[in-house]
Specification:
The structure holds 2 protein chains of 2 kinds.
Chain A: H1 2-26, H2 28-50, H3 55-60, H4 63-68, E1 89-93, E2 97-101, E3 106-117, E4 125-133, E5 136-138, E6 141-143, E7 146-152, E8 158-165, E9 183-184, H5 194-203, E10 220-222, E11 227-230, H6 233-245, H7 247-251, E12 253-265, E13 268-280, E14 283-294, H8 298-307, E15 310-318, H9 334-370, H10 372-387, H11 390-404, H12 409-422, H13 426-439, H14 443-450, H15 455-491, H16 501-510, H17 512-517, H18 519-547
Antiparallel strand pairs in A: 1-15, 2-3, 3-14, 4-9, 4-15, 5-6, 7-8, 7-14, 10-11, 12-13
Helix pairs in contact in A: 1-2, 2-9, 2-18, 9-10, 9-12, 9-13, 9-15, 10-13, 11-12, 13-15, 15-16, 15-18, 16-18
Chain B: E1 19-31, H1 36-40, E2 47-59, E3 63-67, H2 74-81, E4 89-94, H3 98-107, E5 120-121, H4 131-134, E6 137-140, H5 154-164, H6 171-184, H7 190-194, H8 203-215, E7 221-225, H9 233-250, E8 253-258, H10 261-267, E9 270-275, E10 278-284, H11 285-290, H12 295-302, H13 341-345, H14 350-355, E11 361-364, E12 367-369
Parallel strand pairs in B: 3-8, 3-9, 6-7, 7-8
Antiparallel strand pairs in B: 1-2, 1-4, 4-5, 9-10, 10-12, 11-12
Classes of the chains: A alpha+beta, B alpha/beta.
Chain lengths: 554, 377
């Protein structure tokens, strides 16, 4: 019998749930909302499971990761729209062509990739990183390789781009192990002038004069040995400075002119800036990373032969397009940020709406059922809360939290959500109170009292089950409110640090001038916020018809 | 001062071992909310005097009917006895069964015991200690549609009293008790009704469920608050005979609240007629109905429709005038004097009736009336 009772209750619950679902499905709005909701929840679950829990620190705000991506790059699929682009290439190099020169005690490993540029667009740079460096020990010393990047261009120019001597601090690593340090092979400090000069020689005219912009000065250039003759050596150093700042425009470009700007200071003209006018050079480029060990004993060399200097080398040519959703101004992958926003948005929405509804339910039932002074106190609190303007309070509190807890974004976010909850429960409490007032006058409540029911039992058994459907509908309705408020606050400048959709929009807002052209940055978070809100509003509308049958039209 | 004539004792409680319930001078006044201006002006607080000094006793095993028009306080009296509304003043004494008496006095030594017959003054039992008494004192409500929670199945409705009072240790035991209760009120087979919701059964069946719920705790005393007035006429007789059967079977005592004197005559042993919160006449049902003394009772009885078709065209003369006064402003003196036809005929009583409230006096053995007409002899 008891099993029968239990199963019948479960069955009743299941059927009522099924009824509610099928009733919702029958309505147009309900159908749309259920489909959207399924997609939202599925994506949110996928994101929550698939993305690392410390996504914010490990990926989103990681400068290392940001540096590997082009900044403000549109999504890759724009190429199908006919937009000229430079492809983004990530190569993991583990196959090398080795050259062993025992006579000179040299061992060289060469890694090469070919990059082809089809459109007249500059890529954003070249990044090379070595992983798991082999710690080579000779006697008491540890020795690293000398790694150089050579670039050979479609116009025949081949030159040295960077030169890095990998050094290891003595005694930090045990001999012949793999170091966990990531070795950067393309740092600005490692850039050499060789490639720059070779490019300029290639495009200098026959008399050795390169093109000149200035009215009075000419720059003379010795094409045979690649040195500047006139006017002074610092033209060369300034041009090199420009090269180290924006290497990709020289590497992937043909020089048409060199511009120098002067300023008249203290009675004489002085050089301010030297930069080349360049145009993209279309064709295929060979990028070679060469790592070599020199002056090592033969035994050591042959041991390296089996092990290789790095386990893998990552070479990235930053293109002008990136990923599925593009990147923001810092080079963050927007696809990841937006994906991470799904569980965040749903968590924020349900956390705020759930607690708001719970507090509203309890306050309303207690207020309505017990009446008297308790009722009076709760209702006056609701009145006061309802008349305080939420937004200024929210901004002040959030600002204070931002300043105080700059290092703990979770505290700031929770603080904002807490304020939303504290100010959010009043409306529901009033409605639940009114419902409770009418329910508690029903004869079956009096009958329960005559049977000796405690107040708690009456509340939980007779009143709350009647109020719950309404509370659920209102919960669903208030989910988008929380999401929208959070987004609104982000745009107003309250930054807790989590990559919510609102926070992404707010970043775009900060870079307003560029962002207006970077539609892939502005539109998707806005659209996602709208769709999520729409889902919950539609579901709320459908549910409202369920709990309020008077709204049913047919 | 007018003195009561001798040999006409005022109605007083006679505590004997046959009685199950005594009610003495029961008052239930509801305060009217005052506006701030009224408070500032120091206007006295007004009360709706729903029940204004009611005394009666009910013998074990009898059906005691409380009759009167709507708003006269009969339902409030019933609810006040069961402490569903707080009483303002007065005594309610209930004589529980022996084992309940022992349980009550052993668990709570301060419980107010009044006499050698083991009566308990339940009007002084604090609300938190009242729960055990509810197993013996139950109520059947007027409205079978409102008195069942629409979200609970019949099984859950009937199981509730068992859960509250922790009767039946296992679920099976409770289910058994529920099935038996359904059989008792002739809802058979019980399995057919257990998992239905109230909206799935008829009004008569619902009232049977309400009765079954009241019986779940094996009560001895039941307040039946107009149990059939909202049912179809065709079902009333069924429910009434069920109630009478159950009374015989289980040894119940009913306080039967009704506005229908014909019904009272059909089922009640004794009858009390209430007007504006007070009992105006009390006695054996047959005696009160066949020989009504109070002008109000006379008016009520002459208003009973006659089933004789020969009288169908006769417009009957009901000896009453005016409207019921508000319970806020009860007329001074005899509260019926504003409507009394007898007063018109004997104007010499005018001073008495308008100034002094008539006591409930015994006119013939067991027949009490509160009217100055019967005091003057």
């Amino acid at each position: 019998m008891s099993k029968q009772v239990k199963s019948s209750r479960l069955k009743a619950l299941a059927t009522s749930l099924k009824d509610a679902l099928s009733e919702t499905w029958r309505q147009g709005a309900g159908k749309a909302s259920l489909i959207l909701m399924a997609v939202l929840v599925a994506v949110a679950i996928y994101a929550a499971v698939a993305m690392p829990p410390n996504f914010r620190d490990a990926v989103w705000d990681n400068l290392e990761v940001q540096g590997e991506n082009p900044s403000l790059a549109p999504p890759e699929w724009v190429k199908y729209l006919g937009v000229p682009h430079a492809p983004h290439v990530i190569a993991s190099l583990d196959k090398s062509i080795d050259r062993l020169d025992l006579e000179n005690q040299i061992y060289e490993f060469n890694y090469t990739i070919t990059y082809s540029l089809e459109h007249e667009v500059f890529p954003q740079g070249i990044i090379a990183k070595g992983y798991e460096l082999l710690v080579v020990a000779v006697g008491n010393y540890t020795i690293g390789p000398r790694c150089r990047i050579f670039i050979s261009r479609p116009d025949g120019v081949t030159g040295l781009y960077t030169d890095t001597s990998v050094t290891l601090a003595a005694g930090t690593e045990s001999a012949w192990s793999r170091s966990s340090i990531i070795v950067k092979l393309s740092e600005p400090e490692a850039i050499k002038s060789d490639l720059l000069y070779k490019i300029i020689i290639r495009y200098a005219n026959e008399s050795g004069l390169l093109l000149l912009k200035d009215r009075t000065y000419y720059i003379k250039f010795n094409t045979t040995n690649g040195t500047f003759l006139e006017p002074v050596g610092n033209v060369a150093s300034m041009l090199f400075e420009d090269f180290t700042l924006k290497p990709s425009k020289y590497i992937f470009g043909k020089v048409s002119n060199i511009n120098a700007s002067y300023e008249f200071m203290r009675g004489q003209w002085s050089l301010q800036r030297v930069a080349a006018s360049v145009e993209p050079l279309v064709g295929s480029y060979n990028i070679t990373i060469s790592c070599r060990y020199t002056a090592l004993p033969q035994a050591t060399l042959s041991r390296i032969q089996d092990l290789k200097p790095f386990n893998s080398i990552k070479l990235i040519v930053k293109g002008s397009v990136y990923g599925f959703m593009g990147t923001d101004a810092n080079g963050r992958d927007l696809a990841l940020g937006l994906l991470y926003g799904f569980p965040l948005a749903i968590a924020i929405g349900f956390f705020v709406a759930g607690l708001t509804s719970l507090i509203g339910l309890i306050a309303g039932v207690v207020s309505g059922y017990y009446g008297g002074i308790v009722d009076e106190i709760i209702q006056r609190i609701v009145d006061v809360m309802g008349n305080i303007p939420l937004l200024p309070i929210l901004i002040i509190i959030a600002m204070a939290l931002m300043v105080t807890y700059a290092e703990a974004p979770l505290v700031v976010l929770m603080g904002i959500l807490t304020v939303l909850i504290v100010f959010g429960w009043g409306g529901l409490a009033i409605i639940v109170r009114a419902m409770t007032l009418s329910i508690k006058e029903e004869p079956y409540i009096e009958a329960a009292k005559a049977l000796g029911s405690s107040n708690r039992r009456i509340i939980f058994k007779h009143i709350i089950p009647q109020v719950i459907p309404y509370v659920v509908a209102s919960l669903v309705f208030s989910v988008p409110g929380a999401i929208l408020t959070e987004a609104g606050l982000s745009v107003l400048g309250i930054r807790h640090g989590y990559p919510t959709w609102g926070a992404i929009l707010s970043e775009a807002y900060r870079y307003m001038r560029v962002a207006m052209e970077a539609l892939w940055w502005v539109l998707p978070p806005g659209i996602l916020i709208s769709i999520t809100s729409l889902t919950f509003v539609l579901l709320g509308m459908a549910l409202e018809k369920l709990v309020e049958p008077r709204l049913r039209t047919a | 001062m007018i003195r009561l004539s001798e040999g006409m004792p005022e109605h007083s409680l006679k505590l004997d071992k046959k009685s199950i319930l005594y009610v003495e001078n029961l008052k239930t006044w509801f305060p009217v909310r005052r506006s701030i201006i009224d408070v500032v002006r120091r206007k006295p607080r007004l009360y709706i005097r729903a029940v204004d000094g009611v005394s009666f006793d009910i013998k074990e095993g009898e059906v005691f009917a409380l009759a009167g028009e709507s708003g006269c306080g009969k339902t409030t009296t019933g609810k006040a006895i069961l402490r569903l509304v707080e009483l303002t003043d007065g005594k309610v004494i209930y004589r529980p069964s022996k084992h309940l008496f022992e349980e009550l006095t052993s668990t709570n030594p301060s419980i107010p015991v009044v006499d050698k017959y083991m009566g308990i003054e339940i009007s002084r039992v604090p609300a938190k200690n009242f729960k055990p008494l509810r197993t013996e004192m139950q109520i059947i409500f007027q409205d079978p549609y409102g008195s069942l929670n629409p979200r609970l199945t019949i099984y859950e409705v009937l199981e509730e009293p068992l859960v509250i009072h922790e009767i039946g240790s296992t679920k099976d035991e409770r289910a058994e008790l529920v099935s038996r209760a359904l059989e008792m009120v002739k809802l058979t087979p019980p399995e057919e009704f257990l998992y239905r919701y109230p909206h799935m059964i008829s009004g008569g069946q619902r009232q049977r469920v309400v009765i079954a719920r009241a019986l779940m705790l094996r009560p001895r005393f039941i307040v039946a608050d107009e149990p059939v007035s909202m049912l179809d006429v065709s079902i009333r007789a069924e429910i009434l005979s069920l109630m009478m059967d159950l009374k015989k079977q289980l040894g119940l005592t009913y306080l039967f609240i009704t506005h229908d004197l014909a019904l009272a005559r059909y089922i009640a042993d004794r009858l009390a007629v209430m007007y504006l919160g007070k009992i105006v006449e009390l006695g054996d049902t047959m005696r009160v109905i066949e020989n009504p003394l109070h002008p109000y009772t006379k008016a009520l009885i002459s208003a009973i429709p006659e089933p004789d078709p020969r009288n169908r065209l006769k417009i009957r003369d009901v000896p009453i005038k005016g409207e019921v006064p508000s319970a806020l402003m009860i007329p001074p003196g005899c509260r019926f004097h504003t409507r009394c036809v007898a007063l018109e005929r004997s104007p010499e009583l005018m001073e008495l009736c308008t100034k002094k409230e008539p006591p409930l006096i015994e006119v013939e053995p067991g027949h009490y009336v509160a009217c100055w007409l019967y005091c003057k002899k």
